[in-house]
């Protein structure tokens, strides 16, 4: 089939969006080892160096054979994105089954603390390094530092009303915008144990169905796709990502406008959404200010599904992304990931096609002509790319 043909043919190409990358690759242990080097550079704020390792991991993920001394000489030395230094690391792995620097870093207190801090939603490398610098090491240190409220379910961060309701019912109204990231971290810390429990596929589907059932009450006939890691075939997800639109190209845009806030408020009133971490156009959360952000309306929420609806009463992160009809398929692609696949999709569009791709649309650069793709496949066609199944976009 097409997928296995892509695996055998396209593994040496420069762009992640022209390669097929399975969830688990034949050289997974090497990928994990190199990824430690990527992560440590990222956590230390060394962006260019981090990207080199990230690209190395991505190209390894698409390589279909076991890397041994023979395939190393035959193929690996010719792969793009692998400089001399990284090749030495790979060679070291082939010889010893591990990379010494990766082992040292993984065992270091600094790497462990920074990694741990940044698992808390809203904490990026900069905050993690600051917390380490003032002496924090463990999650318990962080809980003390942020003074996490004991009863989080009666503590509501309501970004819709810009207020915080504390467990004893005290309302802090007019919370300043620059205080919000700190409050989101408090909440993320308090529900951290729930968020650490991954979401099985069946529960992702149930949450999606509940969201769409409730949305139907506000706006009939919307369409949706579950995106993110789920769509790339992950058996367990860290959150649920849903792209929503309306199929009518003429009237759909007006129907979608403002619907994100409306749905979030509705789900909040129904008790499904317990906390809102971010609502687009509202406050620009530090953690979200990345090169990958788009202009779509979105709500990053905390969601609880009651057991009678098939839930486990756990706090789950649910991201709702609203696209106007003409941007539906680009949004589906953009939010399906992976991050590296998207990065190279944008690069390919720009460098190879003179076009601009992001989740909010596909345009020609010289005259800003907007394309309106009717399917996901059509986006690939317009960009002159071979179809890559979502389960093969794990670069
Ligand atoms: P995430 O939900 O953060 O990641 P994921 O779904 O790939 O994996 P997980 O199981 O951990 O949730 O993001 C969903 C997709 O949205 C991601 O694959 C690519 C896109 N995205 C960006 O392009 N830029 C970003 O900054 C983020 C957060 C996501
Ligand atoms: Mn990364
Ligand atoms: Mn996700
Ligand atoms: Mn997400």
List the helices and strands and how they pair.
Blueprint: H1 2-9, H2 28-43, H3 47-61, H4 69-74, H5 84-96, H6 100-107, H7 109-117, H8 125-133, H9 139-146, E1 156-158, E2 163-165, E3 171-173, H10 180-190, H11 192-195, E4 199-200, H12 201-218, E5 223-226, H13 228-231, E6 236-237, E7 239-245, H14 252-256, H15 259-269, E8 273-279, E9 297-304, E10 315-322, H16 328-336, H17 339-353, E11 355-358, E12 361-364, E13 370-371, H18 376-382
Parallel strand pairs: 7-10
Antiparallel strand pairs: 1-2, 2-3, 4-6, 5-7, 8-9, 9-10, 11-12, 12-13
Structure, explained:
- This protein has 18 helices and 13 strands.
- It is α+β, with helices and mostly antiparallel strands and 395 residues long.
- The chain folds into four domains: 2-107, DNA polymerase, domain 1; 148-190, no CATH class; 199-329, Beta Polymerase, domain 2, CATH 3.30.460.10; 332-392, 2-Layer Sandwich (Beta Polymerase, domain 3), CATH 3.30.210.10.
- The strands form four sheets. Strands 5-7-10-9-8 form a five-stranded mixed beta sheet, with helices on both faces. Strands 1-2-3 form a three-stranded antiparallel beta sheet, covered by helices on one side. It has a three-stranded antiparallel beta sheet with strand order 11-12-13.
- The structure holds thymidine-5'-triphosphate and manganese (II) ion (3 copies).
């Amino acid at each position: 089939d097409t997928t296995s043909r892509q695996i055998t043919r396209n593994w040496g190409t420069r762009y992640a969006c022209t390669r097929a990358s399975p969830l688990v690759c034949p050289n997974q242990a090497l990928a994990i080892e190199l990824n430690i080097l990527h992560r440590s550079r990222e956590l230390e704020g060394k962006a260019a160096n981090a990207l080199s390792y990230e690209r190395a991991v991505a190209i390894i993920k698409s390589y279909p054979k076991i890397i041994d001394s023979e395939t190393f000489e035959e193929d690996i030395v010719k792969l793009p994105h692998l400089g001399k230094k990284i090749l030495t690391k790979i060679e070291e792995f082939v010889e010893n089954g591990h990379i010494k620097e990766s082992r040292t870093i993984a065992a270091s207190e600094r790497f462990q603390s920074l990694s741990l801090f940044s698992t808390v939603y809203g904490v990026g490398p900069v905050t993690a390094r600051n917390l380490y610098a003032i002496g924090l090491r463990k999650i318990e240190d962080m809980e003390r530092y942020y003074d996490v409220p004991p009863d989080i379910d009666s503590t509501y961060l309501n970004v819709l009303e810009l207020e915080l309701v504390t467990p004893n019912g005290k309302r802090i109204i007019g919370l300043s915008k620059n205080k919000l990231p700190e409050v989101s971290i408090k909440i993320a810390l308090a529900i951290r144990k729930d968020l650490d429990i991954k979401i099985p596929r069946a529960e992702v589907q149930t949450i999606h169905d509940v969201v769409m059932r409730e949305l139907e009450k506000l706006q009939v006939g919307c369409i949706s796709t579950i995106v993110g890691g789920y769509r790339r075939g992950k058996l367990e997800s860290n959150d649920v990502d849903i792209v929503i639109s309306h199929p009518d190209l003429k009237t759909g845009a007006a129907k979608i406008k403002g619907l994100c806030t409306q749905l979030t408020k509705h789900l909040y009133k129904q008790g499904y959404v317990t906390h809102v971490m971010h609502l687009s156009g509202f406050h620009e959360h530090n953690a979200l200010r990345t090169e990958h952000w788009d202009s779509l309306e979105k709500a990053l929420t905390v969601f609880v599904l009651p057991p009678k609806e098939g839930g486990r009463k756990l706090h789950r992160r649910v991201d709702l992304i609203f696209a106007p009809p003409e941007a539906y398929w680009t949004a589906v692609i953009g939010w399906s990931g992976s991050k590296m696949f998207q990065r190279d999709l944008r690069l390919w569009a720009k460098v190879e096609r003179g076009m601009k791709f992001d989740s909010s649309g596909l345009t020609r650069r010289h005259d800003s002509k907007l394309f309106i793709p009717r399917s996901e496949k059509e986006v690939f066609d317009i960009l002159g790319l071979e179809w890559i199944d979502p389960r093969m976009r794990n670069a």
